[in-house]
Design a protein that fits this description.
The protein has 17 helices and 13 strands. The protein is α/β, with parallel strands linked by helices. The protein folds into three domains: 51 residues; 212 residues, 3-Layer(aba) Sandwich (Rossmann fold); 105 residues, P-loop containing nucleotide triphosphate hydrolases (Rossmann fold, 3-Layer(aba) Sandwich), CATH 3.40.50. The strands form three sheets. The chain has a seven-stranded parallel beta sheet with strand order 5-6-4-7-8-3-9, sandwiched between helices. It starts with 29 loop residues before the first helix and ends with a helix.
Length: 451
């Protein structure tokens, strides 16, 4: 039997399940899902188990006694029949250990071509890690069938509390590799920030928080995202409400911590995604200061595709004995086909127009090295008759959020951007990446082409 047959693919909107269910049993049936906001009608046999007081009647005492004996006999027979026909029901949840998977609403299968970077696994299943059933439900409804290689390596080690230094290619499932153990280790009954996930950009913060919310949709875990460029007052108000997992950029989280609003004394896990960028001179001082607010027994997980010298210095200071994972036998994903064209500056736009007419493009991302060139190129592409958005760091945050959201939802075919958009952004429809300007470093090129 195909081992994947245990998790049959299904068609659904990926939003199934009862958001009010937090038990360890299987999810409710579809009918019960639609009725979860209303009071459930009693089981047809339940009323027979209630010891009712007999109503005053004009019958003799012996006759009345016989009626109650008969009623109890009927109740016993019904109870036996009920036990044979269906398993016991508690809190509206079918307690059969195998039915919960069949009731999940799975999203459409991801039909993208998968390379060895994600298919060369050890054959583990998510259930091998003894995760909460509610978390497993979110994992499968997110569309994950089996853990990818980086998830196989990271999840069991992270669950032991060990520090991790992980190097894996973009597009191989790094986000879930740290989100899943983070969600598993959170005590949802404890009103405190227990996990902080640091990312270098606002767009990646929004994307990561959304992944956490989707994976934890059946848990009572409260996820908050905070980044610079948004209302500080709103973040302060939100932090007075329960927050278990905080995703954000280092500067904003440090600011809230210094103000005494973001309390990290119970934060047992710090995750650094795109760690090489976070340890650049722009962010490293904030991160080192932020670590001082964490308990001494905190766990640090560092993930990235590239690890320059700055990462080693930080590791030696804060992660003395980390578990090292290196899945980078080569830099780029195996399925990426790369072409190089040497053209003069004045020929670039014409060359780009030729590419648009020749290639089968679902969506494309086009990188430039400066804000000014991003806007000029986006204008040129629009004049050529192609739909085009642009995004860069000098735009208002609300505008950036709208562009990111609309492009991700397929409202536009082409996006021109700076290297702001290189870090960890996963958009399924993107099948062409164009470096309109040559990247400034090998690391930048790697992050650009690994969408």
């Amino acid at each position: 039997m195909d081992p994947r047959a245990r998790y049959p693919p299904g068609i659904g909107n990926g939003r199934g399940g009862n958001p009010n269910y937090y038990g360890r049993g299987p999810p409710p049936s579809q009918h019960q899902q639609h009725q979860h906001q209303h009071q459930q009608p009693p089981h047809p046999h339940h009323h027979q188990y209630v010891q009712r007081q007999p109503q005053p009647q004009q019958t003799p005492h012996n006759s009345q006694h016989q009626q109650w004996l008969r009623r109890n006999q009927i109740a016993a027979e019904a109870a036996g029949a009920s036990e044979q026909k269906a398993p016991p029901v508690a809190d509206g949840i079918d307690s059969s250990s195998q039915d919960w998977k069949a009731q999940l609403k799975l999203p459409p299968q991801d039909t993208r071509y998968r390379t060895e970077d994600v298919t060369a696994t050890k054959g583990n299943e998510f259930e091998d890690y003894f995760l909460k059933r509610e978390l497993l439900m979110g994992i499968y409804e997110k569309g994950f069938e089996r853990p990818s290689p980086i998830q196989e390596e990271s999840i069991p080690i992270a669950l032991t509390g060990s520090d991790i230094l992980a190097r894996a290619k973009n597009g191989t499932g790094k986000t879930a590799a740290f989100c899943i153990p983070a969600l598993e280790k959170i005590d949802q009954d404890k009103n405190a920030i227990q996990v902080v996930i640091l990312v270098p950009t606002r767009e990646l913060a929004l994307q990561t928080s959304q992944v956490c919310k989707e994976l934890g949709k059946h848990l009572k875990i409260q996820v908050m995202v905070t980044t610079g460029g948004t209302s500080l007052k709103d973040d302060i108000v939100r932090l007075y409400q329960p927050v278990h997992l905080l995703v954000g950029t280092p500067g904003r989280i440090l600011d809230l911590t210094k103000k005494g609003v973001c309390v990290l004394k119970n934060c047992s896990m710090l995750v650094m995604d795109e760690a090489d960028k976070l340890l650049s001179p722009e962010f490293q001082p904030s991160i080192q200061e932020l670590i001082r607010y964490l308990p001494s027994n905190r766990q640090i997980l560092m993930f990235s595709a590239t690890f320059p010298v700055t990462v080693k210095e930080f590791k030696d200071k804060y992660l003395p004995k980390p578990y090292v994972i290196n899945l980078m036998d080569e830099l780029t994903l195996k399925g990426i086909t790369q072409f190089y064209a040497f053209v003069e500056e004045r020929q670039k736009v014409h060359c780009l127009n030729t590419l648009f007419s020749k290639l089968q493009i679902n969506q494309s991302i086009i990188f430039c090295n400066s804000v000014n060139r991003v806007e000029l190129l986006a204008k040129k592409i629009t004049e050529l008759g192609y739909s085009c958005f642009y995004i860069h760091a000098k735009m208002l945050q609300d505008h950036r959020n709208r562009v990111f959201h609309d492009f991700r939802n397929g409202a536009c075919r082409n996006l021109v951007c700076t290297d702001l958009f290189t870090r960890g952004i996963d958009i399924q429809a993107v099948n062409v990446v164009i470096n309109f300007d040559f990247p400034k470093s090998a690391e930048t090129y790697l992050h650009r082409v690994s969408h």
